Here is the input.
Amino acid sequence: MEIEKKYLVDTSTLHLADYPRKELMQGYVLRDPVIRARKEDDKYYLTVKGKGLLAREEMNLELSRDAFDTLMKKTDNAIIEKTRYLIPYTYYSDFQMSERHVTIELDVFKGKLSGLILAEVEFDSTEEAREFVAPSWFTKDVTNDSRYQNANMIGLTFDQI
Here is the structure.
C-alpha cells in the first residue's frame, strides 16, 4: 500500500545541489490501471498501481535493462522524465506524539512538463498522513487533485495542468 501526499512548492529558498538526487524516466504501458516501467539511475522497475489518491495499492518488481527497453517500446511515447531530490524533513506529529523523520521526494519535471515541481511525502498510515505538518515552502496540497498524478499528465504541458 502506498500512502502519500503531494504538494506544489516554492523552491526559491532551497539549494537543491545540497541534496542527493536521482534521474527518473518512466513510461506508461497502461494508464488505467497504471502499469509503468521506470528507470531510476541505473535500476529498472515495473510498477502496477491501483486506484486512489491518498492511498492505493502499489507493487514494484525489479526489471532487467532488456525488459525495461522492451516495455518502453510499448508506451507510445507516454514518457515522463524528472530529477528527484531527496530532502530530509523533521516535524512533530500529534498522532504519534513524537518527532517524525520523513524524506520529501521533490520532483523537478523535464520536457513538456518543465516548470512543474511537485513534492511527495510517503507515510505508514492514513492517520499519519492527515497529521503531517508541511514545511513553509509547500504552497498547495494537491493530493486529491487527480490532474497531478503522473499518468494523467502524459502529453500535457505544465500550462495545461
The CA atoms of residues 90 and 143 lie 20 Å apart.
